[in-house]
């Protein structure tokens, strides 16, 4: 069964340490993707694209810097793309997902832990399901090495990026034969 990610009901949030003393959080506002499941609902694969230009940390100057060539280089790399390479059922409705994350033209593996919901029928007759996921990555693996050192000897940004996904998807109706 194929599912389409519903961008109006999906979020991709991230968190990075700032000066080693606090955490800066942000999210992306543009994303799309597809999910494949077996007919009985077991997750098989997923693919998603996140618009790099849609980054939002509630601070426009910081957003502009994150879109620049120092970080996401949104002008030349309009999307971050994730494609699953393996999906392992850990326990009922809990999966470990490994996939290739392409960012700034570089691709490296990333692991996600996902928990999925039972599908439901919405008031308009669509079948919907959702998933919550978490993961971590080291931004330097993708060449995101820009940093500064403060007067106190602390790096401005941490290397680890923690991210959280809240995904809602709508089942695509089957294509009629003939």
Q: Which descriptors would you attach to this protein?
A:
178 residues, mainly beta, Lipocalin, eight-stranded antiparallel β-barrel, 12 strands
Description:
The protein is mainly β and 178 residues long. The chain has a single domain (2-171), classed as Lipocalin, CATH 2.40.128.110. Helices cover 4% and strands 56% of the residues. The chain has one helix and twelve strands, in the order E-E-E-E-E-E-H-E-E-E-E-E-E. The protein has one helix at 60-67, and strands at residues 2-5, 11-18, 22-28, 31-37, 43-51, 55-56, 79-91, 94-103, 106-116, 120-121, 127-138, 157-171. An eight-stranded antiparallel β-barrel has the order 1-4-5-7-8-9-11-12. A hairpin with a 3-residue loop joins strand 2 (11-18) and strand 3. The longest helix has 8 residues, at 60-67. The two termini are 19 Å apart. The mean pLDDT is 91.
């Amino acid at each position: 069964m194929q599912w389409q990610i519903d961008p109006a009901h999906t979020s991709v949030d991230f968190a990075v340490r700032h000066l080693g003393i606090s955490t800066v959080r942000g999210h992306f506002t543009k994303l799309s993707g597809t999910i494949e499941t077996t007919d009985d609902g077991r997750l098989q694969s997923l693919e998603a694209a996140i618009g790099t230009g849609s980054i939002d940390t509630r601070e426009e100057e910081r957003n502009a810097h994150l879109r620049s060539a120092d970080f996401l280089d949104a002008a030349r790399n309009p999307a971050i793309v994730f494609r699953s390479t393996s999906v392992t059922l850990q326990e009922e409705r809990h999966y470990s997902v490994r996939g290739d994350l392409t960012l700034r033209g570089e691709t490296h593996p990333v692991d996600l832990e996902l928990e999925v919901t039972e599908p439901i029928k919405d008031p308009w007759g669509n079948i919907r399901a959702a998933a919550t996921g978490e993961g971590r990555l080291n931004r330097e693996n993708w060449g995101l090495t820009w940093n500064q050192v403060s007067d106190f000897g602390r790096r401005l940004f941490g290397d680890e990026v923690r991210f959280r996904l809240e995904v809602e998807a709508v089942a695509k109706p089957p294509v009629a034969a003939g």
